[in-house]
């Protein structure tokens, strides 16, 4: 039982125990809930200490598909860093939930599912075996479905849960078929070997990575499978913070990072990724600008930020993507938890009811402002450095020294810069509507309890300091590269370049200007405009997928009910009817019987004579 | 002129039965009690069986000229004789109840039945057409009298009339067939006929003659289209007589069919298709009409018509690589043995229930399991066997044994028809079996007091059939390998 | 005399017999027509026997058997008709249809 | 093989018990169900003994073989034996039989008559175990038919809704199938002169001419397809499941469906390899149609039991796809899929039976919503079983389907691209499966919760269901428990097919 497996099992066991014993006392449930992810964090820390992980692969020596449980694990810089982030954020979310979920009757099952989710995410992170990866991937999807549908009394919670699961499941078809192709083509289920073998054969690489990309689009809510994330806000805020901001949505990016040599061997797929990322990045940011609900603004912002990571991967820089993934996790979790605190205090998440809370919720105000600044990418916060690294990577690609064509680099660079402006705009709008201006809504507002704002503070620390680790090459870059199973050249420093800084500052200022003008309450809108409802993508889904499916279902049930059923019962009644007709020949007159018999005999004689003659 | 030496030992079974008939008649006259006649009947059968077995391999009534004997005992004939005799014993047990309460004159009944049985015992061992026809008449005529023997029942006369007219018509036609065969081959003895068949292809007259000869066989086994009389006669006659008709007289028919097809084995491409169509139509028609029946006896009549179709299948499938031979004959005898046990059992239960409760419609058997569980389980077992559904194992095994022949000879359509017929058959057997175990509806039919006298013998007949069927299910080679035992 | 003449006679007798069997309403006439059919058979049997003239003279012996069979049948037939007449009062065959399929 | 008394004992014990119940008087009504549990427990112990005796190393060859001549005229010998393919199924049958018996102790369905009910269950057990142990074609056919009468009575007398029509359709349709299969068997026996499955699989079957092989394979597959059920021979399944009593549908879905696929792997694939190689692509096509059709049809159903019935059509579609690949991974996936489906759908039907008992209905129109609130544990089990059934990785349902896809990527038959298209369609089937199960959970589990009106899962229900729940998780986490037994036997089967491959 290797250390990574222990790290995965602690939250899983906590979940199981929580489910069993949770009903008894809330305190016990709370303690177990926090203990799970905390245990994982401790083990992750221990793993981090033996930094130059000598032999990353710990496999069970039994390849081939019919093996005992796929327990092979991978421990390298990439895995440990993400694992640390996941367990850190999960622990904070569990602590936060104790306060947030005080009035929730089904707290024990909620806490258990969050721990189970953490275990699943960690399983994906340390998965050295494709099968373990698939197990973690799907269990994550299930936990997100269960947690979104936590208070299933509400109609939109039920609908959102099903929508989330099905849309991600659509993506998962591609993912599973991709994994099947990978196993089939390379014959092994060990991730490094499979990736190495796949990257050597371009066709397999293209097909496999194209299919896996489908799964990633579903999980990381990229266009066209992004529609489920905004609706997922129907779930409780801590869930949105953990799953729909920091971890699960990032799992897609992580998997691409893990399979990166294969993706590099398929430039076509990378180009497609770049285009999709750009569409999502800009589209989501613009939609976020017109949202009327606090959490939906943040949701669309997450979609846009994820597009940044995908774009970074598309332009050939895995480190930039992972760097942005980590930093985004911190400040976006912070923002969602802060939003949760506000909703907890105000009672509604609609912007109309929120306003002028600066004085009544000081800590939340302070931490949320830090988060928004990081989101926008203001120096010296983590967001600035990670976003800059993406821009630098795009600029390298534009210069043509990456696998992808230069125009892709230019496209990503331009769209990224424009999105910075739009991001700044919606961030400022959000800030102004929430904190500045007169107090909308009524009733006393007081600060969230300590158990809720402590995690906010704890998250604010990495949001402030994490950026600096990227400066010298020996810190974060080497950490991510540290004897990664597939070395990708020398670890370049993720230091921002002057020209990109200039561009982003200019875009930032423009954005602030736009945001300032649209801070007036009248600009909130009621969220019914086409733009607000996600550019009609949902309607498109309804027409292109849901409606035809229901028509098909109708045909099948119709076909099954009438055609096949009718034939079977028809045969039944048909035989009975022939029986009836035969019966009518028996009317009782013996002379009629004899005449039929004799005519039959004559016919038999004639036919036999004819057949014998021929 | 050599005096024909007659080996009485060979003829013993027929003589014993005939003698028994007379003794039974006289016994009833002397003692005025029908039960004694039944006792004599049972003793006669008990004595006849060992004689039949002992006679195996003998032959007699041989003509001095070409030493062609007209009475040859083969293992096949012994098996058929044993089946006929044992079935008669069961029918006598069944009938003793009717005889006891004067519904049927005891002496005459047993006398007529034993006369008919003496003919039935004669047929399997006949070796020429003349003896065959005479024996067939000896079997048939007493049965019409038996059918009409029912006191105070106008429909019995009508039933006897229908059977009688159908019989004399088919016998006349068969005789004409024999005349034609004799005309074309100049021989009546089976050995000479077989030689003539091997010698040349069938001339048109011979073909016509043979097909017409099959008429009387089709009448005896009540195969469609010669089945018209069967349902009406079974309904008109008393249940034991209907049982007798459905088993013993059919066994006689099958013996005749086996002998005829055996003789003309060389011409099998000519008669096999006719028999195949006969079997196919009988199986399908019998089951289809049985679906619609409401009266228990009429349903059993149509069911026994369908079962006759199954029994003929091996003969019908003689084609290509499969020639007429012991393998085909054993399949027919195997099914016949199982059929006799199952069918007699079903008739026995119907007889008991009809006498105790007066129920005639199988629909009214609802909840029989509540009132007399033993009878219900027995009837369910017989119906399952007839349907070929486990726990009625023997019914299934003999169907498998019969189905092997068409599969081996490649007569696919026949195998398909049998498959479909079995499924249709299952429908009505199952419906009846289900009625037995359903909750009895509210107005429980009053169960009349048990007729004290003679009712135990009827139950014994049910028990005998049940024992036989279960024994066959456990050790199927008792039935399937009966011929090899002698 | 050529063999076909007696055969012609026998076929015609047989045909008339069959016609009578199927058409006549009175049971006794039906029995008579069956007799006709049997005699038709006898004619052909005797004719064939003459034709073959083989040692056993099987044709003639069968003819005698047929005659006895006919007698037995008639005896039994009349007994059944008597019973029918006593029960029903008429021996018309096409009235004797109490036993039949009660087709719905 | 020292203890070859094990297998006959497994058959004789329930048979004698059924006999005792048949003969026992009316007083037996009281102790009938306990007697049933006792007998099934003995059966379970015997099975565990067999599992222990079974030597994993030589899982490919027949073990615990018992042989006795029975009907020489039909070449039928009473020959029983177990190998890697049949052992898991025997174990599954014993387990489900035991769970059913425990469930029936205090829950004999309307109209009671416990003595007859338990007797029929024991007869059913004999038929099912016999089918998996028989090594002679005709013996296999006999046990195949023994199952029908008891199941017919269970549906017709203890079922609900228009149970008589459902029972009749079930038995007539299956009997027609089994008779067609019998004709196929007879053709094989006639052509090869032997009815012994091991001999036939060993190579005797290959000597049959191509045409005869094809005819026999089509006939036998036709019969087995009705039992599986393969689309379009599935119409009897929804009616039978809806009308059958809980325990009836558990055994019907849990074991009876497996006799079809077991027959294919045990008889058709090794004995008629040339024909199988030509038929495989069409079998794959029917399998995939079954998957998609089953999923879409179950989305449109208005009754909980019918949804699960159609889901079984979908799951068996995956099993058929696995078999049609004729590859080691594919057939292993099929056998695992059999076991997983048996356990999960058995659990599903138990839970739905529980719901029907508490709410009196399974129709969506009249089912109360908010089961999660009114009976939390029952709701959790419904959710758990539904999620397992839609193939969540980590639970038993996933391996059967996923490995069938892996098998389809590299089928033994030459048509690789064709199979990859099938693979993608089957994967689409997975998301449809998720769709209809989530619809069920949303409609039944969630919704404006009514307060706790229903009594939650009772003790005896827990006792009866826990083995299934545990097995779903254990098989999900450690699938090798089944694979180590089935793999050697499957390699033998695939070797016998290898000769026929171009």
3D architecture notes:
The complex is a heterotetramer of chains A (614), B (486), C (104) and D (502). Chain A is an all-alpha fold. Chain A is built from 23 helices and 2 strands. Among the domains of chain A are: 267-535, no CATH class; 539-570. A two-stranded antiparallel sheet of chain A has the order 1-2. In chain A, α1 (3-21) runs antiparallel to α2, α6 packs antiparallel against α8 (202-219) and α13 packs antiparallel against α14. Chain B has helices at residues 8-31, 34-54, 75-100, 106-122, 129-148, 154-185, 190-199, 204-220, 229-236, 239-263, 268-290, 296-316, 326-357, 368-371, 373-387, 393-409, 412-437, 455-474, 477-480, 482-485, and strands spanning 59-62, 69-72. Chain B has a two-stranded antiparallel ribbon with strand order 1-2. Chain B is globular. With 104 residues, chain C is mainly alpha-helical. Chain C has one domain: Helix Hairpins, CATH 1.10.287.3510. The longest helix of chain C is centred in the last third of the chain and has 31 residues, at 58-88. The mean pLDDT of chain C is 89. In chain D, α2 runs parallel beside α4, α5 packs antiparallel against α7 (163-192) and α14 (328-359) packs antiparallel against α19 (459-477). Chain D is globular. In chain D, 75% of the residues lie in helices and 2% in strands. In chain D, β2 (69-71) and β3 (76-77) form a beta hairpin. In chain D, the strands form 2 sheets. A two-stranded antiparallel sheet of chain D has the order 1-4. Chain D has a two-stranded antiparallel sheet with strand order 2-3.
Write a concise keyword list for the protein shown above:
heterotetramer, C: 104 residues, mainly alpha, Helix Hairpins, 3 helices, D: 502 residues, two-stranded antiparallel sheet, 4 strands
């Amino acid at each position: 039982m290797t250390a990574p497996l222990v790290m995965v099992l602690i939250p899983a066991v906590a979940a199981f125990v929580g489910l069993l014993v949770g009903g008894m006392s809330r305190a016990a449930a709370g303690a177990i809930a926090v203990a799970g992810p905390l245990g994982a964090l401790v083990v992750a820390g221990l793993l981090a200490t033996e930094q130059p992980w000598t032999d990353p692969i710990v496999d069970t020596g039994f390849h081939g598909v019919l093996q005992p449980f796929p327990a092979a694990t991978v421990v390298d810089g990439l895995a440990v860093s993400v694992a640390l982030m996941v367990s850190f954020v999960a622990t904070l979310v569990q602590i936060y939930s104790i306060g947030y979920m005080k009035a929730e009757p089904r707290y024990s099952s909620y806490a258990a599912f969050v721990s189970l989710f953490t275990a699943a995410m960690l399983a994906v992170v340390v998965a050295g075996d494709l099968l373990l990866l698939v197990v973690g991937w799907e269990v994550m999807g299930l936990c997100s479905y269960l947690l979104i549908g936590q208070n299933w009394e509400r109609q939109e919670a039920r609908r959102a849960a099903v929508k989330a699961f099905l849309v991600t499941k659509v993506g998962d078809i591609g993912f599973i078929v991709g994994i099947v192709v990978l196993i089939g083509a390379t014959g092994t289920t060990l991730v490094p070997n499979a990736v190495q073998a796949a990257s050597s054969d371009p066709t397999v690489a293209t097909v496999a990575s194209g299919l896996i990309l489908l799964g990633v689009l579903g999980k990381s809510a990229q266009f066209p499978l992004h529609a489920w994330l905004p609706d997922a806000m129907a779930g409780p805020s801590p869930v949105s913070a953990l799953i729909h901001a920091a971890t699960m949505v990032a799992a897609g990016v992580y998997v691409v990072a893990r399979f990166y040599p294969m993706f590099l061997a398929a430039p076509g797929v990378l180009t497609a990724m770049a285009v999709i990322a750009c569409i999502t990045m800009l589209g989501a940011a613009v939609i976020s600008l017109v949202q009327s609900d606090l959490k939906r603004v943040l949701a669309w912002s997450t979609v846009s930020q994820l597009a940044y990571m995908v774009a970074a991967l598309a332009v050939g820089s895995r480190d930039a993507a992972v760097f942005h993934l980590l930093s985004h996790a911190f400040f976006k979790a912070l923002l969602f938890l802060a939003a949760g605190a506000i909703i907890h205090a105000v009672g509604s998440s609609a912007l109309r009811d929120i306003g002028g809370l600066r004085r009544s919720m000081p800590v939340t105000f302070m931490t949320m402002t830090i988060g928004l600044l990081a989101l926008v990418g203001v120096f010296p916060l983590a967001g600035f450095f990670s976003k800059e690294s993406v821009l630098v990577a795009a600029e390298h690609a534009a210069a043509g020294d990456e696998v992808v064509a230069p125009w892709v680099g230019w496209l990503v660079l331009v769209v990224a810069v424009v999105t910075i402006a739009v991001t700044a705009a919606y961030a400022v709008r959000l800030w102004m509507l929430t904190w500045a201006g007169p107090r909308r809504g009524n009733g006393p507002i007081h600060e969230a309890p300590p158990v809720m704002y402590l995690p906010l503070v704890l998250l604010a620390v990495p949001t402030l300091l994490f950026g600096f680790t990227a400066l010298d090459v020996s810190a974060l870059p080497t950490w991510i590269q540290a004897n990664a199973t597939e070395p990708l050249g020398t670890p370049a420093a993720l230091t921002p370049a002057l020209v990109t800084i200039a561009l982003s500052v200019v875009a930032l200022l423009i954005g602030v200007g736009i945001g300032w003008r649209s801070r007036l309450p009248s600009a909130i809108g009621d969220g019914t405009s086409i733009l607000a409802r996600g550019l009609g993508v949902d309607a498109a889904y309804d027409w292109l997928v849901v409606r035809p499916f229901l028509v098909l279902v109708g045909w099948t049930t119709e076909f099954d009910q009438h055609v096949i059923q009718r034939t079977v019962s028809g045969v039944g009644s048909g035989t009975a009817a022939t029986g009836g007709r035969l019966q009518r020949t028996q009317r009782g007159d013996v002379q009629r019987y004899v005449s039929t018999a004799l005519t039959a005999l004559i016919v038999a004689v004639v036919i036999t004579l004819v057949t014998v003659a021929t | 002129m050599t005096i024909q030496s007659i080996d009485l030992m060979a003829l013993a079974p027929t003589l014993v039965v005939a003698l028994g008939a007379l003794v039974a008649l006289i016994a009833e006259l002397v003692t005025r009690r029908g039960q004694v006649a039944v006792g004599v009947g049972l003793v006669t059968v008990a004595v006849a069986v060992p004689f039949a077995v002992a006679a195996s391999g003998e032959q007699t009534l041989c003509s001095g000229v070409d030493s062609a004997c007209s009475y040859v005992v083969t293992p096949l004939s012994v098996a058929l004789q044993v089946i006929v005799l044992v079935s008669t014993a069961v029918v006598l047990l069944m009938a003793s109840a009717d005889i006891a309460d004067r519904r049927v004159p005891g002496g005459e009944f047993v006398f007529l039945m034993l006369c008919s049985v003496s003919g039935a015992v004669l047929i399997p061992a006949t070796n020429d057409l003349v003896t065959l026809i005479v024996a067939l008449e000896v079997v048939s005529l007493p049965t019409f009298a038996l059918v009409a023997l029912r006191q105070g029942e106008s429909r019995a006369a009508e039933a006897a009339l229908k059977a009688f007219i159908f019989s004399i018509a088919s016998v006349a036609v068969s005789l004409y067939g024999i005349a034609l065969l004799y005309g074309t081959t100049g021989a009546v003895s089976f050995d000479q006929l077989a030689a003539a068949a091997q010698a040349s292809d069938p001339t048109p007259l011979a073909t016509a003659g043979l097909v017409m000869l099959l008429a009387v066989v089709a009448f005896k086994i009540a195969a469609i289209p010669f089945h018209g009389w069967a349902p009406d006669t079974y309904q008109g006659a008393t249940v034991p007589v209907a049982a007798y008709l459905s088993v013993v007289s059919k066994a006689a028919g099958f013996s005749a069919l086996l002998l005829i097809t055996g003789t003309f084995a060389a011409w099998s491409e000519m008669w096999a298709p006719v028999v195949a169509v006969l079997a196919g139509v009988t199986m399908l028609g019998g089951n289809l009409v049985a679906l619609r029946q409401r009266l228990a006896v009429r349903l059993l009549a149509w069911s026994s018509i369908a079962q006759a179709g199954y029994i003929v299948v091996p003969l019908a499938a003689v084609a290509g690589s499969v020639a007429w031979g012991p393998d085909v004959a054993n399949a027919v005898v195997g099914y016949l043995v199982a059929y006799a046990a199952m069918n007699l059992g079903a008739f026995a239960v119907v007889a008991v229930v009809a006498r105790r409760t007066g129920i005639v419609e199988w629909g009214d058997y609802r909840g029989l399991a509540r009132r007399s569980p033993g009878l219900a389980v027995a009837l369910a077992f017989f119906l399952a066997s007839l349907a070929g559904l486990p726990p009625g194992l023997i019914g299934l095994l003999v169907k498998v044994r019969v189905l092997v022949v068409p599969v081996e000879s490649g007569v696919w359509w026949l195998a398909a028809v049998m498959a479909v017929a079995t499924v249709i058959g299952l429908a009505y057997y199952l419906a009846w079996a289900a009625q037995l175990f359903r909750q009895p509806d509210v107005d429980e039919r009053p169960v009349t007091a048990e007729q004290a006298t003679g009712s135990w013998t009827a139950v014994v007949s049910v028990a005998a059939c049940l024992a036989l069927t279960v024994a066959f299910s456990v050790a199927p080679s008792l039935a399937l390998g009966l011929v090899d035992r002698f | 005399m050529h063999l076909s003449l007696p055969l012609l006679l026998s076929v015609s007798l047989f045909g008339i017999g069959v016609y009578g069997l199927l058409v006549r309403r009175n049971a006794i006439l039906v029995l008579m027509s069956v007799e006709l059919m049997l005699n038709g058979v006898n004619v052909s049997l005797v004719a064939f026997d003459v034709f073959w003239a083989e040692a056993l003279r099987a044709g003639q012996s069968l003819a005698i058997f047929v005659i006895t069979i006919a007698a037995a049948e008639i005896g039994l037939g009349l007994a059944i008709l008597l019973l029918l007449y006593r029960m029903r009062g008429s021996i018309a065959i096409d009235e004797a249809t109490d036993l039949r399929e009660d087709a719905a | 093989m020292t203890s070859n008394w094990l297998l006959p004992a497994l058959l004789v014990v329930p048979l004698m018990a059924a006999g005792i119940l048949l003969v026992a008087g009316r007083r037996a009504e009281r102790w009938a169900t306990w007697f049933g549990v006792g007998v099934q427990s003995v059966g379970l112990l015997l099975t565990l003994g067999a599992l222990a005796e079974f030597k994993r190393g030589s899982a490919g060859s027949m073990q615990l073989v018992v042989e006795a001549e029975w009907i020489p005229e039909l070449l039928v010998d009473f020959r029983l034996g177990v190998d890697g393919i049949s052992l898991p199924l025997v174990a599954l049958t014993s387990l489900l039989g035991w769970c059913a018996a425990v469930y029936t102790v205090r829950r004999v369905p309307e109209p009671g008559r416990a003595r007859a009910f338990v007797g029929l269950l024991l007869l059913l057990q004999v038929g099912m175990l016999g089918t998996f142990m028989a090594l002679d074609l005709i013996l296999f056919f006999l046990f195949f038919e023994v199952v029908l009468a008891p199941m017919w009575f269970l549906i017709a007398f203890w079922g609900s809704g228009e149970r008589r029509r459902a029972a009749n359709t079930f038995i007539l349709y299956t009997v027609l199938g089994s008779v067609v299969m019998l004709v196929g068997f007879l053709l094989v026996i006639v052509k090869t002169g032997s009815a012994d499955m091991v001999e036939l699989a060993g190579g005797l079957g290959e000597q049959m001419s191509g045409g005869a092989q094809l005819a026999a394979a089509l006939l036998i597959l036709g019969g087995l397809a009705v039992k599986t059920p393969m689309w379009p021979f599935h119409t009897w399944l929804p009616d039978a499941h809806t009308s059958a009593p809980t325990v009836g549908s558990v055994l019907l879905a849990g074991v009876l469906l497996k006799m079809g696929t077991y027959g294919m792997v045990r008889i058709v694939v090794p004995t008629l390899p040339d024909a199988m190689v030509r038929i495989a692509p069409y079998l794959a096509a029917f399998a995939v149609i079954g998957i998609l059709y089953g999923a879409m049809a179950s989305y449109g159903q208005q009754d909980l039991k019918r949804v699960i019935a159609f889901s079984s059509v979908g799951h068996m579609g995956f099993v058929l796809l696995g078999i049609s690949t004729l590859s080691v991974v594919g057939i292993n996936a099929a056998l695992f899929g059999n076991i997983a489906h048996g356990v999960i759908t058995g659990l599903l039907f138990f839970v739905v039976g529980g719901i029907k008992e508490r709410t009196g209905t399974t129709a969506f129109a009249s089912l109360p919503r908010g089961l999660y609130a009114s009976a939390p544990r029952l709701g959790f089990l419904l959710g758990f079983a539904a999620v397992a059934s839609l193939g969540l990785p980590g639970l038993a349902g996933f391996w059967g389907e996923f490995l069938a896809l892996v098998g389809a990527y590299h089928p033994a038959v030459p048509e690789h691209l064709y199979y990859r298209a099938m693979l993608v369609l089957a994967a689409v089937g997975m998301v449809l499966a998720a769709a209809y199960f989530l619809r069920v959970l949303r409609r039944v589990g969630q919704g404006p919760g009514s307060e706790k009106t229903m009594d939650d899962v009772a003790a005896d229900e827990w006792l009866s269901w826990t083995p299934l729940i545990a097995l779903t998780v254990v098989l999900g986490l450690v699938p090798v428990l089944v694979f180590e037994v089935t793999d050697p036997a499957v390699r033998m089967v695939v070797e016998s097919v290898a000769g026929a491959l171009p």
